[in-house]
Design goal:
The protein is of the alpha+beta class. The chain contains 17 helices and 40 strands. The strands form nine sheets. Strands 14-13-10-11-12-15-23-21-20 form a nine-stranded antiparallel beta sheet, sandwiched between helices. It has an eight-stranded antiparallel β-barrel with strand order 25-26-27-28-29-30-31-32, surrounded by four helices. Helix 4 packs antiparallel against helix 5 and helix 12 packs antiparallel against helix 13. The longest helix is centred in the C-terminal third of the chain and has 22 residues.
Length: 669
């Protein structure tokens, strides 16, 4: 076994590898950039070495700096995690040259599978089903248009060296091919240093299902079942599960056999993933092979009981697989939700800043029989920078069946407190409650189809509105009783709390009466429906999160003061509830609403980022849909378009400018 492992990565995956290394009794070395000097993975490792500035090209992608860290620490093995150098054959070769073990597959397999064109040719030769497409390199946009016409629209434009949704575009017509080809090339060049592009047929109503493989250096290869990864936005997975609710045993077996055949064809060892696109009839087509540990590996670990990082380390050390194919069992169901520093209310644009509050749910077994796991690389006070991927954590739940795993996830998301940045917790909660998701009717177009106008929060129905109204009334009741106990409030009339209140939230208003009962607070709705809810909680004034029981049903709600109201967040709902005396509520209805400032004549930067392109000039007349500028943030290129016909009056910035959210880029007449 190895004497010391250096982890050539950062964030949650570095922490994940450290966890297993500690279990095996192997010391670890962390590497870090200027931006990660105080990061969690640096604190958790036994040693840490600084490797350069914040920019990945000067630190985590700098092979020379990683090799220097190896010499400095004497580590005899490297785990690359995922991303950065994890699928870089030159890096693996460089380690081999200095007699350091790469905890991953052989360089030849990385090289063969890392090029999407080569990998598809190898897959076809190995008898693996492949998607129709053009496997040769494409020189320019016009050639891309010609090829697309031959394949038939829609088509997928992809970076040959791509991954993680970078350099990928769907085109439904010639114009979108021309535009998508250029954007894909730019993203590919910036992310991978390789702007080669290829095109393939886009499968309508596709599911993204992948097979986890595991092979040793002795020729033994097995698969560990599948993961469903169809819930995506911008081709980036956000929710995964194992197993898939769509596959039957025959399809699972066939996909597994093809994944093993492909792995054998390239002499694969270590953990790897073969990704497939599956259509509505369970026809499946090879997409790509990831020659590394996947972000979503925890769900496979939860349903198989196999520690994939441990197996990677043992395989790299020359050990044989400890499990045979017929010993692999899929037990229960697991769900993973990726917590991203992306604001769902602003079309999932990146958000940066400091985590002023970060309180994940407690990990481990729950009383309901489920399990919670949270893979993270941050703590309260950590800084989310613009230099790296926006993922904060991977929250996972396990249950004996799919519905119980989903319910556990919903409760865990309710318990997760994150403040200081925009994040996608409300959206993840909304998906967990969505009927189509619960029924398992998934496709990679799920988000586009179910949230066509973006995400603006979940609007409560009447039942949910009454639930939150009772929570607000209960909180207010406690606040009022605390207030009358404050020193100096001694008059009898000030020591009485009225029982009559009006709760307003969203588009709902409820007249309620509140009273204390032996087993909690009774909230009666005075609208003739005869609804009376008994509320108990552990909430006290000042707490930002509390557990409530309403007529015996448990729920967790995040609570904050918002002006004169209470901000309540639960199951994707984010609502300010006002609890007022009846006369005050009557007057409040007459108050004019404050209108937001008019920014319709300005193009504002939608996220923190760098302006890479200004596509127009002052005085230009622009049409709706025309490209105005491009902003790059967190390794993604974002094209900004005109919403309507207008004339450019003033351009406020030059290419290369770093902007904060809502800083002006240009103004229109």
């Amino acid at each position: 076994m190895f004497k010391k492992i250096l982890i050539a990565n950062r964030g949650e995956i570095a922490c994940r590898v450290i966890k297993t290394a500690k279990k095996l009794g192997i010391p670890t070395v962390a590497v870090y950039s200027d931006a990660d000097r105080d990061a969690l993975h640096v604190r958790q490792a036994d040693e840490a070495v600084h490797i350069g500035p914040a920019a990945p090209s000067q630190s985590y992608l700098n092979i020379a700096n990683i090799l220097n860290a190896l010499k400095e620490t004497g580590a005899d093995a490297v785990h690359p995690g995922y991303g950065f150098l994890s699928e870089n054959a030159h890096f693996a070769e460089a380690l081999k040259a200095i007699d350091v073990t790469f905890i991953g597959p052989p360089p030849a397999a990385i090289e063969a599978m890392g090029d999407k064109i080569t990998s598809k040719k190898i897959a076809a030769s190995a008898g693996v089903s492949t998607v129709p497409g053009h496997m040769g390199l494409i020189e320019n946009a016009e050639e891309a248009v010609h090829i697309s016409q031959e394949i038939g629209f829609p088509v997928m434009i992809k970076a040959s060296a791509g991954g993680g949704g970078k350099g990928m575009r769907i085109a439904w017509n010639e114009e979108e091919v021309r535009e998508g080809f250029q954007s894909s090339q730019n993203e590919a060049r910036n992310s991978f240093g390789d702007d080669r592009i290829f095109i393939e047929k886009f499968i309508v109503e596709p599911r993204h299902i992948e097979i986890q493989v595991l092979g040793d250096k002795h020729g033994n290869i097995i698969h560990l079942g599948e993961r469903e990864c169809s819930i995506q936005r911008r081709n980036q997975k956000i929710i995964e599960e194992a197993p898939s609710p769509f596959l039957d045993e025959a399809t699972r077996r066939a996909m597994g056999e093809q994944a093993i055949a492909l792995s054998a064809a390239v002499g694969y060892h270590s953990a790897g993933t073969v990704e497939f696109i599956v259509d509505r009839d369970r026809n499946f087509y090879f997409l790509e092979m990831n020659t590394r540990l996947q972000v979503e590996h925890p769900v496979t670990e939860l349903v198989t009981g196999i520690d994939l990082v441990e197996e990677m380390i043992r395989i790299a050390a020359g050990e044989k697989l400890r499990v045979a194919q017929d010993e692999v069992r899929l037990n229960g169901w697991a769900i993973e939700s990726r917590l991203y520093a992306e604001d769902p209310y602003r079309n999932f644009l990146p958000s940066i800043g400091r985590l002023t509050r970060y309180r994940p749910p407690a990990e481990g077994a729950r009383s309901c029989g489920g399990i919670i796991r949270n893979d993270t690389g941050v703590v309260e006070g950590s800084e989310i920078s613009m230099y790296y991927d926006p993922m904060i954590a991977k929250l996972c739940t396990w249950g004996p069946d799919r519905l119980s795993a989903i319910r556990s996830m919903g409760a865990a998301l309710d318990d997760f407190e994150v403040e200081g940045i925009g994040h996608n917790l409300p959206f993840l909660s909304a998906v967990m409650e969505h009927p189509r998701f619960r029924e398992g009717r998934l496709s990679t177009a799920f988000i586009a189809e179910e949230f066509p106008d973006g995400f603006s929060g979940v609007a409560p129905d009447d039942v949910d509105a009454r639930t939150l109204a009772s929570v607000a009334a209960h909180i207010n009741w406690k606040v009022q009783h605390r207030d009358i106990q404050i020193s100096g409030a001694m008059d009898n009339h000030r020591r009485k709390v009225s029982s009559a209140w009006v709760v307003t939230l969203d588009n709902h208003a409820f007249a309620v009466s509140v009273r204390d009962e032996e087993d909690g607070t009774a909230v009666s709705f005075e609208d003739g429906n005869g609804v009376c809810l008994t509320v108990t909680s552990d909430w006290v004034p000042g707490r930002t999160h509390a557990s409530f029981a309403i007529d015996g049903e448990s729920l967790s709600v995040k609570i904050a003061r918002s002006g004169t109201g209470y901000r309540l967040r639960w199951r994707g709902m984010d609502i300010v509830a006002h609890v007022r005396r009846p006369r005050v509520a009557e007057l409040a209805r007459l108050m004019p609403k404050k209108l937001p400032p008019d920014t319709s004549k300005m193009l504002l930067c939608p996220m923190p980022g760098v302006v890479t392109v200004i596509a127009v000039s002052e005085g230009d007349a622009v049409e709706a849909g025309q490209i105005l500028a491009t902003v790059e943030a967190m390794k993604m290129e974002n094209v900004l378009r005109a919403e309507r016909r207008a004339t450019v009056k003033r351009i406020a910035v030059d290419p290369g400018a770093s902007l904060a959210v809502d800083e002006p880029i240009m103004e229109f007449e």
